[in-house]
Amino acid sequence: MTETLLSSPKRRFLSGLFGGRKGDRISVANPTSIVSVELMEKTGIFFPDAHLDPHKMAELAAGGYEILGFDSIMPEFSVQQEAEALGCVVDWGSPTMMPDAKTHPVKEVEDLTIPDNILEKPSMAVLLRALEILKRTYGNHVAIVGKVMGPWTISYHLCGVQDFLMWTLTESEKVKKLLNRLKEVSIAFANAQLRAGADAVVIADHATGDLVSPKAYQDFLLPVHQEMNQRIGGPTILHLCGNCSDRLRLFVEAGFDGYHFEWQVDAKMAVQVVNHEISLVGNIANRDVLFGGTPEDVYKQARYSIEAGVDILAPECAVPLQTPIANLKAIVEAAKEGYVAQGPAAGALIFSPEGLSYGVEIPCSSSASRSTARFKKWGRPSWIETSLSSGNWRKSSMNSEPIFSTSMRVWQVGMRSMTSVGWWNSFKKRSRFR
Fold first, then answer.
1. Which of 77, 104, 291, 368 sits a CA distance of 20 to 30 A from 154?
2. CB count, 10 Å around CB of 223?
3. Half-sphere exposure (CA, 13 Å, Cβ side) for 407?
4. What is the rounded CA–CA span in Å between residue 187 and residue 233?
């Protein structure tokens, strides 16, 4: 009964976000936009209308669940909602171009004016209304995800990226004052989104690894993020681009429930470093795989992340608008195979020549046609390579006791019950153990 409940999209997502019980497979979600031109064509909803009309925004966002099969619906496609509400002139783009702030009105802290009714500004109210629509239609079954810009990202828009980053070196107190004032916008918008129906809120704060050092994050943003997480009344996911391998523990310290990360951050390393103290969401590469690759490329990268122990599978960032739908669907297909293989098939190969025991790792299948292994080649002495009739190759290290290993689980198997004498004699004739 529990596994059936956890198999719903919403339960899969929330279980992954909180590091809880696992259902039949990993959740596939989108903390950032998965809208492409092809998805717009299939829904009949296009940019820029989807940025400005709550019904169109909700309908296009729902395509991520209805058409692509994702477990979440996230209707904030741009990064400019707060920017326009705070005075930037925004070009809302086209079906082939994302929105962009064209003016940067803040040159001094005194230039910053935060309207008392900022949540009623059209660019922010549209998202709250879209969340209400989605909650009413999908909220009992699908995870509804909100998104706000953090104070660092809003500062980029209001001040200009170059000027703001220069101030971090020359006018640090000015930067801190801006961040402390703008965090109030992020907190208010996040809580409003939770009230409107979001199950979790993404905090997109682009102090990217290629522009901002770990020390700068620690000095400027860590205390701000800690306060934000204390005051936001629901789960939060940090989205922060670039290679942030050198500051993962700071994100844990900041108190986020999840970290949405890029392919530049190795999934296996990240899992080890965060030690399940924050959920990892990601990290399928956009440019080379989702945009420039094939469904097979997507599958391989998705399985790597799953087997590394990532908690929720997702594209690494907002996908390029020309991303093929087939590649986005391939993420879901990879997830449907489950966390790990389910156990040894009939005829799985476990052997123990001369008192030593070895494991052979093969993909799980209960069908007899896939349970017969054959040899491809021998690698270096500490490794054995085998394949199934399907041609799916796996590598398995020598082990000190008889085991059958599949990625994350280990089954202890008696050699005699799994291997016939005839097969063993045949094996010895073809192997270096003869």
1. 291
2. 15
3. 18
4. 9
Q: How far apart are CA 321 and CA 20, in angstroms?
A: 34
Report the mean per-residue pLDDT for the chain. Answer: 82
Rounded (10°) CA dihedral 116, 120, 124, 129: 150
Are residues 259 and 369 both part of a single domain? no
Given a contact cutoff of 8 angstroms between Cβ atoms, the answer to whether 16 and 311 are in contact is yes
What is the reported pTM? Answer: 0.79
- % the chain with pLDDT above 90: 74
Q: How far apart are CA 103 and CA 14, in angstroms?
A: 38
Tokens of 329: 């669907």
Q: In 3D, which of 96, 81, 102, 84 has the Cα closest to residue 41?
A: 96
Predicted confidence band of residue 6 (pLDDT cuts 50, 70, 90): low
Interval 346-402: pLDDT, tens: 333 333 333 333 333 333 333 332 222 322 222 222 323 333 333 333 333 333 333
pLDDT at 296 over 70: yes
406 and 257 assigned to the same domain: no
Number of domains forming the structure of the chain: 2
User: Are residue 117 and residue 160 in the same domain, yes or no?
Assistant: yes
Query: How far is 279 from 378, CA to CA, in rounded Å?
Result: 38
Q: Are residues 267 and 396 in the same domain?
A: no
Question: Do 312 and 364 reside in the same domain of the chain?
Answer: no
Domain span including residue 311: 2-336
Residues 191 and 310 in one domain: yes
Q: Do the domain assignments include residue 346?
A: no
With tokens 């590469």, the residue in question is: 285
Q: Are residues 131 and 11 in the same domain?
A: yes
